[in-house]
Amino acid sequence: MKLMNRMLPAFLLVAFLLLSLDLPAQTPEEKGLAIATEVDDRDKGWGDFQANMEMLLRNRHGEESLRKMRVKSLEVENDGDKTLIVFDEPRDVKGTALLTYSHKVKDDDQWLYLPALKRVKRIASRNKSGPFMGSEFAYEDLASQEIEKYTYKYIRDDELDGIPVFVIERYPVSKYSGYTRQLVWIDKERYIPLKIEFYDRKNSLLKTLVFKGYKQYLDKYWRASEMFMENHQTGKSTLLTWKNYRFRTGLKDSDFTRNSLKRTR
Amino acid sequence: MRRDWPSSDMTGRQRLLVICCLCYSLPANGWDWSGNVAVEGRTFFQSPFDSRQYDNDGSISFEPELAREWNDGRDIFVTRLFGRLDARDDERTHADVREFQWTHVGDGWETLVGVGKVYWGVTEAWHLVDIVNQTDLVENPDAEQKLGQPMAKLSLEREWGTVDLFALIGFRERTFPGVHGRFRTHPRVDTGHALYESGAERKRVDLAARWSHYIGEWDLGVSLFHGTGRDPLFIPTLDNRGELVLVPYYELIDQASVDIQATLGQWLWKLEALYRDSDSGGFYAWTGGFEYTLVGIAQTSSDLGLISEALYDQRGDESATPFNHDLFLGVRWTANDEQSTELLAGVIVDWQNGSTLLNIEASRRLGQLWKLSLQSRAWFNVSPKDLQYPFRRDDYLQLELARYF
Fewest 10 Å CB contacts: which of A50, A156, A219, B30? Predict the structure, then answer.
C-alpha cells in the first residue's frame, strides 16, 4: 500500500502529461471537415425564409441585364432544403418558377413551371454546372450547401481585409460538378464564408465569389446582402443582391409542392 | 362566323375592342399587370392550292394579364385575355378569354372557379393526353395554343398524391383557318355549323378527374375524361352557297390515360398512353421516348438535348391525327446565355408512308423587354394517305417580335 501511495503522484503526473499532449494530431482533412461542420451547425434552425433576389449581369463589354426573382425556402431536417424561385424579370419569363428539393447525397429533385403552357416539367438536376439564368452563378453555386456534398481539407490560417480567417479547400463529391476544387475563406469568429475561388475541371481558376454586407437575422443567422461573382476566363460578372429577408414566415411543406407551382404569382 | 365568347353576334374586331376597353377601364392599384404585344409575319415558299389563300401574312397580337392576390396569397384572381388582328385570315382575327379565374387555397385543398387552363402530359412532339382545353388551331398548326375553358375544379393534396376533380362547364369549338388561311383542308372546315352527339351541344357539362404524384425519380399521372371529345370528325356538306365544306362533328367520348416520366440522371424517359371509347369505336394510342441532355458541350455553357419519341395510334390511317405511326427525332440547343437563346429542330417521319414534317423553332431575348422568335415548317414526301397531305404546299417561315410589359 505504501508503494502505491508513493507511486500515485507520479502516476497522475504521467497521466496528466499524456492527456495534455496533442491527441493523435488532427489531420488537415479532419480539421477542414470540423470547420465546415461548425459552419453548418451554426446555421441550423432558421426554419423558413422569404427574400427578393436581383442579379445584375455584366459582360466584358460592360453591357448589363437584370434578373429579378422571389425566393422562398424551407429548412428540412436530415435532408436538403426545399426552395421555390419565382421569376419576375426579364418580363418574358415572368411567372416561371423553379422548385428544388435538395438532397444531401443523391441528385436534387427539380421541377420547372412554364406559365404560358401551364406545364410543370420535371427537369434533370444533373445539369448542376450549367449557368443559372445566363448568370455567372451555376445551379450548384446557389444550391443548398450540404456538408455531404464535398470533402474538405484545412489549408491555413490567414487574414482577409483584416479579418482572421480559416482557408479551407473543398472537393465536390458529384462527378457532375463543374469544379475540381473550391478554396473557401471562412471568418474565424462568425463561421461564415467571405470568399470562394472556383477551379474548373482543368484545375485553373475560373471564378471568384465575394460575400459582402453580412447582416444578422433572429440574432443568429448571418446572410450576405451582396454576392459578387467574377468569371476570370470570360471577363463576365454577376452581382447578386438579396433584399427584404424575412425569417420564420410560417411556410409549410404544402407551399413547396408541384401543385403549388401552378398558383405561384 | 364563329360562335364563342362573348357573344355570337360580335365579329373578331368587335371582341378585340371589348378587350381593349376592359383593360383600359380596370383600376391599376394593387393589381399586377403584365403581358405582351407582338407583331408576326409569315411567308410561304409555294403558292397555295386555293387561289383565295394568302402567300404572305401579317398580324398583331395582344395578351394582357391582370392578377391580384389577397388573404395572404390564399385567394388569387387572374384574368388573361388574348386577341389577334390578322391582315388576311378573318378567322385568325379573334379574341379569347384565356383565363378569368378565382383560386382559393385551403389546407390540403384548393378550388378554382372560372375560365382556366390545365395541362396534362410529359412528351414533347405531341401532347396526346392533354384534353381539358380545346385547341386554338388557327393560332398555330402545332396545336399548342389553347382556348380558355370554363370550369369548377377541386384539388386535394394528400400524402399519396394530388387528386383534381373537374366539372367543365360548356364546350369550346376548335378554331380552324378561314377561306383565306393556310394550313387548311380542301374543302375548308366550316366552324359555323358544328354538329354534336350530345343534345346539350355546347352547353354540356363534361367531367374529368386526375391523380398525379411523384415517387423518387418517377412522375406519374392517371386521368379520366367523360364528355364531348375535343377532336372533331368531319362531315362533307354543301353550305348555303353551294360550296363543299367540312362540318365538324363532336362525339361523346370516354377516355382513360396515363402519363409517366422517369428522370434518371441525364436521361428523361417519357410515356403518354390513352384508351378512348366512342360510338365510332374504341382505340388506344401512345407516344413515348427519351430526351438525353449533353451538358456544357464543346467547352461552352450550352446544352444539347437529343430527343426521340414514337407516336402510335391504333386507328392507323383512319386516325384523327397525322401522327399515327410516326417517329420524332429532334435536337434542343440551349445556349444558357444572357439572351436565353434556344433552338429546337426536329423531324416527324411516318414509318409507314414516309411523310415527313420538318420543324424548326428558335428564340432569343433582345435587351430586357423584347423577344424575337422564329418558326419554320416544311413538309416532304407527303403521302395522299397522310392527314398532312393538304398542307404539303404550306412550307413557311414565321418571325415574331414581342414586347413584354
Answer: A219
